[in-house]
Amino acid sequence: MAVPDREFVRLQRLQKVRQFAPPAAEKLGGEMVSFFKHCVEKRQTKLGKIAEAWQQLIEEGLCAHCALESLHRGTLTVVVDSSAHLYQLKQVLLGGVEKQLKVVCKSAGLKKVVLKPGRWYAGEGERDRKVTFE
Question: Could you give all domains of the chain from N- to C-terminal order, each with its CATH number?
């Protein structure tokens, strides 16, 4: 009976040697809060001001067919879901609304509005256009 105990002890010793503990990871909470405050929150306040002005100046029927995609170096990129709505929105902006947006959103750094065709939703219906998080 001494032989199996000895083999068992040997296997335990081998197992301890072969196993290694992964290095202790630092908590991510502080880094995430810092990232959020410096990058996301700052950008969100700028886009929030522009979104409010956009809602006020662009008619509701046309707003349903476009989405504010990004604000980079003073250029607001707007995605429009069809070419007909893209043309209509371009005419509205050329009619003076773009100048009004620039004046209202000057503090957010808005200099130019760029329209591009595209879709931000997957389905075809009115209900599918709303942003959902699954």
Answer: 35-129 (3.30.300)
